[in-house]
Amino acid sequence: MSEIADALYLDGVRLPIGRAREDGLFAGTRADDMGVHTVRALLERNPGLDASAIDDVVFAATAQVGDQGLTLGRSIGVLAGLPQSVPGYAVDRMCAGALTALVNGANAIRVGAQNAVLAGGVEHMGRHPMAAEVDPNPRFLAEGLVDPSALVMGSTAENIHDDHPALTRERADRYAALSQARTAQAQSEGFFDGHVVRMTVWSDEGWRVVERDEHPRPESNAEELAGLRSPFRAGGRVTAGNAAGLNDGAACVLLGSTALAERAGVAPKMRFRDFAFAGVAPETMGYGPIPACDALLERNGLSIDDVDLIELNEAFAVQCLAFLDHFGLPEDTEKVNPYGGAIALGHPLAMSGARLAMQLAEGFARKPNAALGLTAMCVGLGMGAAVLWERV
Ligand SMILES: CC(C)(COP(=O)(O)OP(=O)(O)OC[C@H]1O[C@@H](n2cnc3c(N)ncnc32)[C@H](O)[C@@H]1OP(=O)(O)O)[C@@H](O)C(=O)NCCC(=O)NCCS
Predict the structure, then answer these.
(1) 241 alpha carbon to ligand 1 midpoint, in Å?
(2) 3-state class of 361 per DSSP?
(3) Most buried residue, 17, 178, 293, 302, by most Cβ within 10 Å?
(4) Phi-psi sector, 94: left (phi>0), alpha (psi -120 to 50), beta
(5) How far is the CA of 115 from the centre of ligand 1 (A)?
(6) Residue 228 carries which DSSP code?
(7) Interacting residues of 263 by C-beta distance below 8 A, sequence separation 6+
(8) How confident is the model at residue 49 (pLDDT cuts 50, 70, 90)?
(9) Has 347 been annotated as catalytic?
(10) Are strands 247-256 and 383-390 parallel, antiparallel or unpaired?
(11) Do residues 271 and 9 lie in contact, with contact meaning Cβ atoms separated by under 8 Å?
(12) Cross-strand pairs, 309
């Protein structure tokens, strides 16, 4: 077998994240057009990249119907004006859709079969509300294959609170307030400016330019968070304040081989090193990143102490706290989500994995001593996903 080649993260862009509401940033915009915009933006800011040199376009979406339904990677490529010779496909691993797209793209480069891959994700939760367009097989429940709570993500987070009484509502709200504060700080420092691209969209008031994430609530405080009620269970601990939101978003990453990076004149931002996916009980899907990261670290002979930066998707505060406790990390460790996360920014399901990679790349740029990083997320129906990256 030939040697594994380097797969490099060259660049990445995302749209601002909108709220999935009738007056949200992208309420009047097609999901596929959002993906198209990210591809065009990537090509524009990398003029040395010959579009015909792109070997594949991989796009993820959880709801692959309607304007997210026509084999997104191919349809986005055609709509973005890529040459017809550039193929594309769609993937789905729910919340880890874009992370899976990145893994697929990186692996195609690592085996030497491809040199340049666009990998991203789109989710317009306003047009495709979570689980609205699926028809779960009745056997799931009739045969006890999953607990009924497994199909409601907020309930899976309540189950984690049940498992670990030490993971209190108070801790979850404190974690949520930290996510908001860190996001606000990152925003004020221009952290997102390097990868968030503006888009002109149609709204009830006519055309407007959207350029700033809509979901953060920088004014969040512990008192207000403590006053929110859980929609998932009477007396529950999971609220709109300590959960990720319902959002619209799109993101795309350019992955390339060393030769491609040189030809295109793009300085690589980080190197893809390895990946792991794991399965856990669907009714506590939030544990997923723990076995995924454990497996990844073990296979690479590493411990969590060797990792300098972790971008962990914040589906729910309680699930992040379970991760931190498992690895013996303090709640406010600078190692994990130093620039905030999905509780503040929002979580357009299949898009979020690409956002994590963008924030990690930016983190490497800002922390010159950081050598190793992880992007990790939990996934519905009981899965975890993790990718190990290293400084180039
Ligand atoms: C929890 C959830 C149901 C809430 O949805 P929602 O009701 O549309 O959320 P909203 O943004 O309208 O917030 C609800 C209320 O909380 C308030 N609120 C939300 N965040 C707040 C914060 N940080 N501080 C203070 N108040 C806050 C809102 O103002 C709103 O108050 P109102 O009812 O008086 O207007 C939804 O966000 C959810 O399902 N999240 C999880 C998503 C998910 O499962 N993703 C996949 C993970 S695997």
Answers:
(1) 6
(2) helix
(3) 17
(4) left
(5) 42
(6) P
(7) 48, 50, 53
(8) very high
(9) yes
(10) unpaired
(11) yes
(12) 373
Phi, psi (degrees; rounded to nearest 5) at 386 = -150, 140
pLDDT digits (tens, 9 = 90+) for 80-90: 999 999 999 99
Residue 5 backbone dihedrals phi, psi, to 5 degrees: -85, 165
Supply 60's token pair: 């993820």
Per-residue buried b or exposed e for 297-316, using 16+ beta carbons within 10 Å of the residue's own CB: beebebebeebbbbbbbbbb
Best CA proximity match to 260, nearest among 114, 142, 361: 114
Name the residue among 165, 78, 151 with its Cα closest to residue 118. 78
Number of neighbours of residue 236 by Cβ within 10 angstroms: 16
320 given a catalytic annotation = no
Residue 293 annotated among the catalytic residues of the structure: no
Average confidence (pLDDT) over 357-378: 98
Q: Whose CA is nearest to atom 24 of ligand 1?
A: 220
Give the model confidence (pLDDT) of 56-94 as tens digits.
999 999 999 999 999 999 999 999 999 999 999 999 999
The structure tokens 């690592």 sit at 110
d(CA 271, CA 256) in angstroms, rounded, equals 10
DSSP state of 29: S
Q: Could you say which of 252, 293, 320, 378 is catalytic?
A: 378
